[in-house]
Amino acid sequence: MSVSELALPSIDEITKENPAWLDEAVSADEISRLTGIRVGTLATWRSRGGGPRYMKLGSVVRYRRRAVFEWMVETERPHTGIAGQR
Known about the structure:
Strand order of the largest sheet: 1-3-2
Number of strands: 3
Largest sheet: 3 strands, antiparallel
């Protein structure tokens, strides 16, 4: 099955069923599955001040999906000639 054949729900469809979905605090494992970025890379970025915003609740790290999507939009570039940020 090709990517164009996948019937992925839109954000509007997801949030219609679960309005709080974007603001749920989820684990680094889930963010890794969502973005394809390794959990270790996310940890490195947290220690160096890069990557998406996160919350630390005691020893537990959580990301809001909305913050991750916003970060992804901020890092979007039209071509490699434009320097990006982590």
